[in-house]
Design brief:
17 helices, 10-stranded mixed sheet, alpha+beta, 35% helix, 20 strands, globular, 8-stranded mixed sheet
Length: 520
């Protein structure tokens, strides 16, 4: 992906794109992928970096949603299980089968979860990742060595998927780019362009880096901005009612030793009825999540102290070694774009996790709600509205079997896995330029070559793009990320042909963001 080349394509004033997508997270990428699979032309603009918002802040699970099954949302779970299977097939370098263990303390729990998870297995059909089963107390303790033993009767094992959310987003963005899509980060929509009949004919955007404005003509405009959907809806109709209710989920990242082993822990019912996960991820342990209603959508949401306390206290009830704030390597918060509830309903678990596609009178098509696992289906359902908006027929969707950039069934182990087939190319760069083998931090395996690669091929424009989403160190160890920033800024400046002033500002900007990931 070359940003300069992609911006040049916006200068062709005579070009009318089939679809202009606003938003470079899971929803927008799903729309772009599906539209391109049908032979439609696509331009996608994102005001920050790809997956900067909710799409890089998940629990890292590709899952059907065990808790939605408990709530009776059978259709959502069926759809998600089908899409889970497809994701694992299309991106084996970025996804894998993750066993979970639910600790069992009563006979009723054993019965309830054994039956519920057998139904979950059955619903997944041939795309099932493994059989759920009851395991003894001894096996539970051998697989989760740091779990408390008091009253433990055994565990129920089940299987779900795990993934690297931000790198998957990037892999899909590059795939779309290779399919002819015009993918742009740091490009903000300032206005919707309408004809005399009030129908949308395009968008006005500003390149936030080059400080230049562009007018993009499009037959269909898609609002896929997640928690920020209402801002675009208000550009269309200033008095548009609120359609999104942001719900905050936070995660604490701890050393993997707090759980031990490679299995994930799932607590289906915490003290306030929420689900808690403790999932091994990239040699750390991700513990979460919460479900707190927030009034305002923020690009960089922050964990509330009550949420941090809740996660630590709940985890402590199940772990031998009590985690404290001092043990937290990184804390991150994400906002779920839930469909706004009907009057009088405030509980987030009563708000649907399903997605909705809405077409306004002007033709603006908005995709709201949904979850990462079903991103492709969300895209398909949105693109289906192309005929409604334009009156033109389109080819059937062909996005279900597209392999994403880096696809390989034999990825390398460790941090190279996320690059898939591209890992060998980066390693060849190191062979040809031995200085590229220098580590960015003595405790982590990331190399200088990866910074060069990210700038040249993955549209990394800022230090945060690199440290938060190209390599995931900000989410794994925020203090280590801050220590890496000066070296990363220096390499990026060399590749982007920037000066010392840029380097200083880039480090300052990154530190300001990274400090929010550290518990004081």
């Amino acid at each position: 992906m070359n940003r300069i080349e992609n911006l040049k394509k916006l200068e062709i004033e005579t070009k009318t794109w089939d679809i202009a997508v606003i938003g470079g997270g899971a929803s927008g990428l799903g729309v772009a992928l599906d539209a391109l699979s049908r032979g439609l032309s696509v331009v996608l603009v994102e005001k920050a970096d790809f997956a900067k918002g909710t799409s890089s802040r998940s629990t890292k699970l590709v899952h059907g949603g065990v808790r939605y099954l408990a709530q009776g949302d059978v259709m959502l779970v069926l759809e998600a299980l089908k899409e889970r299977g497809r994701l694992l097939q299309n991106a084996p370098h970025l996804t894998h089968n993750q066993p979970f263990i639910i600790p069992i303390y009563t006979f009723f729990d054993r019965l309830q979860y054994s039956i519920g998870l057998k139904i979950y297995d059955w619903m997944a059909g041939r795309l099932r990742l493994g059989k759920s089963r009851f395991i003894s107390k001894a096996e539970t303790l051998s697989r989760l060595p740091q779990i408390k033993q008091d009253g433990l009767k055994g565990g129920v094992v089940y299987h779900d998927g795990q993934f690297d959310d931000a790198r998957l987003a990037l892999s899909i963005a590059i795939t779309c780019n290779e399919m002819g899509g015009n993918m742009l980060n740091y490009t903000k929509v300032n206005a919707l362009v309408k004809n005399q009949k009030g129908k949308i004919t395009g968008i006005q955007v500003r390149d936030l880096i080059g400080k230049k404005n562009y007018k993009i003509k499009a037959r269909m405009v898609v609002n896929a901005t997640g928690v920020f959907a209402d801002k675009i809806l208000q550009l269309d109709q200033p008095d548009a009612p609120k359609s999104i209710q942001p719900s905050q989920g936070i995660h604490l990242v701890l050393d993997k030793s707090f759980l031990g082993g490679n299995d994930a822990l799932m607590i289906p019912k915490t003290s306030d009825g929420r689900v808690l996960f403790a999932v091994p991820w990239q040699d750390k342990l991700v513990v979460g999540t919460t479900d707190t209603l927030r009034e305002k959508a923020k690009l960089e949401p922050e964990a509330l102290s009550k949420e941090i306390d809740f996660v630590l206290e709940t985890a402590a009830a199940y772990m031998v070694k009590t985690p404290t704030k001092a043990d937290v390597l990184s804390v991150y918060a994400g906002l779920r774009p839930l469909a706004a509830p009907k009057e009088g309903s405030t509980k987030t678990k009563e708000i649907s996790r399903s997605h909705k596609v809405i077409v306004s009178e002007s033709g603006l098509t908005s995709i709201t709600g949904g979850k990462w696992t079903t991103f492709r289906k969300m895209g398909e359902d949105t693109v289906e509205k192309f005929t409604t908006v334009t009156g033109e027929n389109i080819k059937p969707s062909a996005s279900a079997n597209i392999h994403y950039r880096g696809y390989t069934t034999a990825p390398q182990k460790g941090h190279w896995q996320g690059y898939g087939a591209d890992a060998a190319t980066i390693q060849k760069m190191i062979e040809e330029n031995p200085q590229f083998s220098n580590l960015l931090h003595p405790s982590y395996p990331y190399t200088e070559a990866e910074v060069v690669w990210a700038v040249k091929n993955e549209m990394a424009m800022k230090v945060e793009d690199l440290l938060a989403r190209r390599i995931r160190i900000l989410f794994l160890d925020a203090k280590a990320a801050i220590a890496m920033a000066p070296k990363v800024a220096e390499i990026m400046a060399r590749e982007l042909k920037m000066d010392e002033t840029w380097i200083e500002q880039a480090i300052t900007d990154f530190e300001k963001t990274a400090n929010k990931y550290i518990l004081k």
